[in-house]
Design goal:
Blueprint (H helix, E strand, L loop, with lengths): L4 H17 L6 E4 L4 E2 L13 E5 L9 E2 L10 E5 L6 H13 L4 E6 L4 E8 L2 E4 L14 E5 L2 E5 L9 H38 L9
């Protein structure tokens, strides 16, 4: 679970925008803070990435992600948002876990220090990325960009990841534009009806003018 509002906001931003990004893909499962059991063994403790994406798995409710029940498909992409309570040992363990159990891309963001780190799989290991600014995820197609010391994530279509408030505002704006267009159309129709009525009063059939 999140330790503070900043961490939670980033978890929600990433998870929900990934849901939106793959809304039309029935074979892409997106989850946040869901326990992932990589093997059927009580000796291996599960991990709960802040956000994860599993390609090749159907959407749907789950109490946990039990890999042996998911065609043995590991989440290919995972995200972690660092909090002040996370220790170096804990994060090292997470990296080792993701490396061991098949994650292809791992992204770690520290919102307090404004640090973004990434790893991609090369062979059997997760290798760190040297440059994250402008990096495009091979699996997700999203782009990480620093602007005015602020991390912005862009969808493949160039639209940026939006917070729930920004999404709501954009929806309201779209509705307002639609309402204005409908009002203009109604006004034009009304003017056309008035003109047609006046022409009929003069004994002119409006249809003859077309």
């Amino acid at each position: 679970m999140a330790d503070n509002t900043e961490q939670f906001s980033w978890i929600v931003l990433i998870k929900e925008n990934l849901e939106i990004l793959f809304a039309d893909r029935t074979d892409v499962f997106v989850a946040g803070d869901l326990l992932w059991y990589p093997v059927q063994s009580q000796l291996i403790s599960p991990m709960a990435p802040d956000a994860m994406v599993a390609f090749g798995r159907p959407k749907g409710r789950r109490g946990s992600y039990r890999q042996w029940q998911e065609d043995d498909i590991a989440p290919q992409v995972v995200f972690e948002i660092l909090s002040p309570n996370n220790t170096k040992a804990e994060m090292a363990h997470k990296l080792e876990f993701y490396e061991r159990y098949g994650v292809e891309e791992y992204y770690l963001y520290d919102p307090d220090r404004l640090r973004l780190s990434g790893w991609v799989r090369r062979g059997n290991a997760l290798s760190p990325l040297e440059q994250m600014n402008g990096w495009i995820s091979p699996r997700l197609g999203i782009k990480f960009q620093w602007q005015a010391k602020e991390l912005t994530i862009y969808r493949p279509d160039g639209e940026k990841f939006l917070s729930p408030i920004e999404l709501s505002q954009r929806l309201d704006q779209a509705r307002s534009r639609a309402d204005q267009e409908q009002l203009r159309a109604d006004q034009e129709r009304s003017r056309a009806d008035i003109l047609a009525a006046k022409l009929r009063e003069l004994g002119i059939n409006p249809e003859d003018l077309h």
